[in-house]
Amino acid sequence: MNTLSPYADLMYRSRQVALLGSCSSVLGWDQQTYMPKGGAAFRGEQLALLATLAHKQATDARVGELLGQVEAEPRPADSVEASNVRELRHAYDRAVKIPPRLVEELARVTAQANEAWIEARAKSDFSRFAPFLEQIVALKREEAAFVGWQEHPYDALLDEYEPGAKSSQIRSLFAELSAGLVPIIRQIRGATKTPDATILQRDFPTDRQHLFAESAAAAIGFDFHTGRLDTTTHPFCSGFGPGDCRITTRYNPKAFNEAFFGVLHEAGHGLYEQNLPANRYGEPTAQACSLGIHESQSRLWENLVGRSRPFWDHFFPRLQQTFPSVRDVSADAFHFTINEVRPSFIRVEADEATYNLHIILRFEIELALMSGDLLVADLPAAWNEKFRAMFDLTPPSDREGCLQDIHWSFGGIGYFPTYTLGNLFAAQFMHAARNQLPDVDAAMRQGDFRGLREWLIANIHHHGRHYRAGALCERVTGTPLRVQPFLDQLKAKFFPLYEVS
Amino acid sequence: MNTLSPYADLMYRSRQVALLGSCSSVLGWDQQTYMPKGGAAFRGEQLALLATLAHKQATDARVGELLGQVEAEPRPADSVEASNVRELRHAYDRAVKIPPRLVEELARVTAQANEAWIEARAKSDFSRFAPFLEQIVALKREEAAFVGWQEHPYDALLDEYEPGAKSSQIRSLFAELSAGLVPIIRQIRGATKTPDATILQRDFPTDRQHLFAESAAAAIGFDFHTGRLDTTTHPFCSGFGPGDCRITTRYNPKAFNEAFFGVLHEAGHGLYEQNLPANRYGEPTAQACSLGIHESQSRLWENLVGRSRPFWDHFFPRLQQTFPSVRDVSADAFHFTINEVRPSFIRVEADEATYNLHIILRFEIELALMSGDLLVADLPAAWNEKFRAMFDLTPPSDREGCLQDIHWSFGGIGYFPTYTLGNLFAAQFMHAARNQLPDVDAAMRQGDFRGLREWLIANIHHHGRHYRAGALCERVTGTPLRVQPFLDQLKAKFFPLYEVS
Question: Which residues hold Zn(2+) (chains A, B) (predicted)?
């Protein structure tokens, strides 16, 4: 060790912490996929230990000393090395503020909370989850207090998922988005032409859905030599590290949408993970830029590619071959129905337009939980009231309401807004890609996604966290993140389908 | 921490090391079951880190100091606490002799070697595995040198699996066993009455085999709330910790034997793991006594229960219901064919009698590899020569020869002899159980295994490693480990079946 330069020593230590985190990822994936029910408590102990060890290594006083040394060394501002030092400093300053006791408690409570959430959701019984969520909110408020914040305690949590982002910025982006989105949704909902939604509720045998979705994921470039697809209650993507990335989905034999677009979504995340700079694994800049950028990749493949007409020019004949139940359906009717805009209860099943209202609702609830304005006990009522105001619908049960998402059970407060940031980034990136790749639609019609994939790899994936999300966006698209490309894209797709203007 | 007594502090540390080991177990299970091929190298890095951390914690100088303190405290010699101190001292003295560099190298090399072995076995190409095995043998010889030994370097490795055992004792046990076994096998092979082996090669659809084996495992008491059954190349049982134990098997639709008795075998291991003292998890005495004792539990359920006539009085009608292909077979014919004695190439498919010859062969080869008398390059030839001498058969390929077992790929030299020790322990335990539970056969005929299971739990499982294997055997059966009960059991079962005497 004493032969390493301070910089190399830092990178070595960073790699050890990343490796420990990756062990937790394997245990977390197993917990969602194959772990027997009785293993939950013990899994909590394992995860708590790994989290504690990782935190201990990341906050080792020697890391602070080494950081001080390397910051004094001259480095080109735009170099990967300088970015590594910047990100390590950011992570270190955050981590040392959080006491190990809190890290361990959060790991243990969230492991139990996840099991409680699964049961609470299955039985639509919020009271089974509430005591765990209360502990989680209390611990996250404690965490925010330790980390510190200027405008809102929420900022301290948001930073973990979207480094450098502030809730005030997101508030104003979301306000602009809402102002543009609500009239678009109103126009679409007022259209006389509507898709035949029953098409997607015909017979789609689960095993065939699995094979069809797997083939589409492979076609867009998800590598099954270094990845796999499993079934879980809540779909996710977990990139363990170079050579191993797992995606999951859930099947409903009477709903084609759910698994198929879910798999394209997770495969989009997977493509990002599979193309991060593997040779620098463990360096801070070799990880994903932010969750917003991560989500831009999943959303781009799910919605901007997977729900496009060119995509189905290639896949529709294959779909009809696989599922006899849709052999009498036209490609146009199918394309229209997978793009139905309809306010609904479940976020992950929502369409491209109303999806963002789900996020705005969660963002507002999380802000209130963190400020203390909303108590966990009042959450179901607050959720349903907001839902009525935004969607003009009342969730029939908490299962279709505040219990639908896994995030709070793992302590992921601050995570939701990154989904809508992802939608915005995706539209802006796709706009830029189309300008630079004029034949992208023609290639897609042939089932050829290489051009788009390689553009994304070169412009986004390979940079990892070398640039922060805002800087990356400007670099790739020429401007900071904007709402307009997303709104334009919605209108360009939905207005012709619904014959409004 | 400073409020803990030295003894409590030691137990806390022991628990942390056990938890780290259990994380490795999850990663190891995943590697065998679901990991994509491309993940092997990275998995090696993860496992190496966990092994290094566990070794670092186990060899922490503070553990040595605490051991010194607690050894000076008075404790009843037969107390669990005294046994915990004894076992921790044993493990500590061994661990501190092995340099961390060696631990890390072994973890990394074996992860790669495992992938190489899978491919080498599939292609029956020893050359793909040889370079890894050479590294492993060199590292294990190094390990033996660091640990130290008096009679044979093999003893240093054996001790890890069968604490306190010596190769000289095993040599003499095996010599006595061989002397008794060879004439028995000769008599059986000379019989004119033989079973119809084709019964087991009829149609046994894989999905039904899975359900049938799972139901039998549940019937003997394997708890699926805290366990699961998956498919792997090489079947195994991995008890992660309280509440989570995984067993695996492999299916052949034209061979009933393989998966069914494999599952009973692994479920026998699983029962042991599921009934270790969970409230003391992480204490040295809360782990399995030795691999020989572990194997006695799997062998007892696989052979002494699962291949017995009372067992099939209950299960045979269910077998015929599940598999139409055996509806014309009599219970007697079926019981005879699952007890066929026939020298064969594959250890895990071998019958109760010839099985032990496979072990004696491996034991002799391992002794020679460790002493340096045999080079890895000469292994296939040595294997085949010994096989001819003992079985009068020549393996048609290395796949059916020296490549058949996973053990060497994970560095498990010293492991094989514990299988035959397990057979001997099993016969001696079952003899004692029958004396104490006169209605055990009548209960089995009703599909009721509770009496036997509870006897094993109370007499063996619950003790964990409180007693060493030899002492446990004497305590449970009244005598040290002997060969005779095993030979008696063989004769009692096989001579009537084959009509020899």
Answer: 265, 269, 295
Helix ranges (H only) for A190-308 are: 206-220, 256-274, 291-299
pLDDT at A103 over 60: yes
Name the residue in chain A with its Cα closest to that of B57.
A53
Distance, CA of B199 to CA of B254 (rounded, Å): 10
Taking all residues of chain A, what is their mean pLDDT, rounded to a whole number? Answer: 96
In a shared domain, residues B128 and B197: no
CB within 8 Å of A288: residues ≥ 6 apart: A272, A273, A276, A294, A464, A465
User: Taking a C-beta distance cutoff of 8 angstroms, is the pair B411, B106 a contact?
Assistant: yes
Closest Cβ–Cβ partner in A23, A39, A226 for B244: A39
Give me the domain span that covers residue B388: 167-498
- Nearest-Cα residue of chain B relative to residue A47: B23
Listed in sequence order, the residues at least 6 apart from A231 whose beta carbon sits closer than 8 Å to its beta carbon are: A33, A248, A249, A250, A251
CA A325 – CA A205 distance, rounded (Å): 10
Judging contacts by C-beta atoms under 8 Å, the chain B residues touching residue A23 are 23, 27, 46, 49-50
Phi-psi region of B290 (alpha: psi -120 to 50; beta: other; left: phi over 0): beta
Comparing alpha-carbon positions, the chain A residue that sits nearest to B230 is A34
Per-position b or e across A22-59, b if 16+ CB within 10 A of its CB: bbbbbbbbbbbbbbbebbbebbbbbbbbbbbbbbebbb
Contacts with B242 from chain A: Cβ below 8 Å: 41-42
Is the complex ipTM higher than 0.85?
A: yes
User: How high does pLDDT run on average in chain B?
Assistant: 96
pLDDT recorded at residue A2: 56
CATH number at residue A444: 1.10.1370.30
Chain A CA closest to residue B45: A19
The answer to whether the CB atoms of A23 and B34 lie below 8 A apart is no
Whether B31 maps to a domain, the answer reads yes
Q: Which residues of A touch B (CB under 8 A)?
A: 16, 19-20, 22-23, 26-27, 30, 33-43, 45-46, 49-50, 53, 223-228, 230, 240-244, 281
Summarised one tens digit per residue, pLDDT across range B324-359 is 999 999 999 999 999 999 999 999 889 999 999 999
Q: Which of A36, A228, A281 sits opposite B226 (nearest CB)?
A: A36
CA distances from A43 to A80, A344, B220, B245 (A): 37, 35, 26, 12
A24: which 2 tokens?
Answer: 């937790």
3-state SS track over B302-344 = HHHHCCCHHHHHHHHHHHHHHCHHHCCCCHHHHHHHCCCCCCC
The answer to whether B27 contacts A23, with C-beta atoms less than 8 Å apart, is yes
Q: Name the residue facing A19 among B40, B46, B228 (closest C-beta).
A: B46
Catalytic residues of B: 266
**Is the predicted pLDDT of residue B191 greater than 90, yes or no?**
yes
Whether the Cβ atoms of residue A63 and residue A13 lie closer than 8 Å to each other: yes
Residues B354, B391 contacting (CB under 8 angstroms): yes
Q: With beta carbons less than 8 A apart as the criterion, state whether A167 and A152 touch.
A: yes
Task: Give the distance from residue A314's alpha carbon to the nearest chain B alpha carbon, in angstroms.
Answer: 28
Q: From the list A34, A49, A240, which residue is nearest B16 (CB)?
A: A49
Q: What residues contact residue A210 under an 8 Å CB cut-off, 6+ apart?
A: A229, A251, A259
Q: Are residues B441 and B298 in the same domain?
A: yes
| pLDDT of B2 over the 60 cut | no
Neighbours of A489 (CB within 10 A): 19
Verify that B172 and B88 share a domain, yes or no: no
Would you say residue B162 lies in a domain?
no
